[in-house]
Amino acid sequence: MAEKNRRNERIPARSFIIILIFIAGWMVIIGALTYYQIFHYDQYRAKVIDNVQTETTVSATRGTIYDRNMNSLATNATVWRVFISPRDITDEEQKQIIAQGLSQLLEVDYSAVIEKANKVNRADETIKKNIDEDAYAALNAFIAENDLDSQIHLEASTKRYYPYGSLASQVIGFVGTDGGLLGLEMQYNTELTGTPGRYITARSGSGKRMPFKYDSYIDAVNGANLVTTIDLNVQYLLEAQLESTYNDSDPLNRVTGIVMDVNTGGILAMGTYPDFDLNDPYTLDENSQSKLDSSGYTYDSDEYNEYYWDLLYSLWKNKAVSELYEPGSTFKIITTSMALEENLVSFDEQFTCTGTFFVDGYSKAIHCHKLVGHGTHPFSYMLQQSCNPTLMTVAARIGRAKFYEYFQEFGYTEKTGVDLPGEASSIYHSYSGFNQVELAVYSFGQTFKVTALQQLTAICAVANGGNLVTPHDVSALVDADGNVLKSSDTEVKRKVISTEVCAEIAK
Length: 507
Known about the structure:
Helix content is 41%, strand content 20%. By secondary structure, the chain is α+β, with helices and mostly antiparallel strands.
């Protein structure tokens, strides 16, 4: 009887221990749930979503670039990206079929496809980008024949295409993997790019596609179109002249030219020769390739590659806005306008040129291009003959302070503000270093450097009645329906000289 009582006493003890174990177990479970569902909720929620959702980017269409008459200068061609979903490949046999088919149809390495297919937790491994319509059709047939629609995917996108090849190449620019790399494609990259959309599909825990009601789609916003001021016909004519000039003169560093509306600042044409093919921008032109071939560098050596890139960057550079030169005698128009505005000279006034001119502070004579001199003639004749001593005489009348003030007003100490990348800053003397010698040689455009566009902009101010305008290549941004999103109106920076003086010079 006593033993029975002792046994009955042990039963509650065992029950208590069991209850404690259960309580401890529940506390562990509750603790784990608290850990995962409260403290690390966001982390594990993201993992679950990643396992049950597949997100595909829907590319926005890059905007078209037009000339002023709505001829396409840069547009888009449809291409496709091929990618596989390794986590949906069911077995080794299917993997082999996929690798064999893609390597043959897309001309890619078989082992590279296998390597990507082995990444079993991945849903998107790119096999090849920018395949054309023929490859797209062949691949679709392969997918259908082998029932691989869950394993092989095709994502439509666009590839930039330039209908006129090398025309206005440095102005238009081209596109790389990260957007515009040159010219207008770079300057207006944000506006042209648009905003990509997203297509999110849902899958069950077993990886099967769930009903379409669980899918979501966010529309892409296509990029804006650029309507430029470029005139296709004028551009053709300019480039023909540039090529002819290059062949006739054999310059050391290319040739450039600009055609601009003097009243609005709209650039009708701008070119640099030699140029390059926008559809194949990494291939050198014939002249540059010849230089590379005759360089003596071993193919693919460091020296060879460095020279290749130097030649290529030179082709890409827009000489009209990115390189400096001395404007020379073309600046005499500016000196003349200063003197006329200040009533310091008239076209009938007589000047004498002996072929030399002496300036205080400089021991040597400054020569005229006609060493024997032009003799005595009216200012109008001396200007036509580009007589340096005459212009130096006129500049001395203007004086350092007033000349430098006009020099600034005509925009020579600032960038033009053109809507193109890579505009260079001019090189000139500060006023403290602008002495009588500098005044003399500035009068005929030497010892300072500007861009070709900067010089043309200043001359346009004389041609348009005295207004310094901002040059520009784009007149408007429009959407696909032709609605104007933004327009570029004529921007007058300031009035530099009077309309009367401009009219007198234009006679």
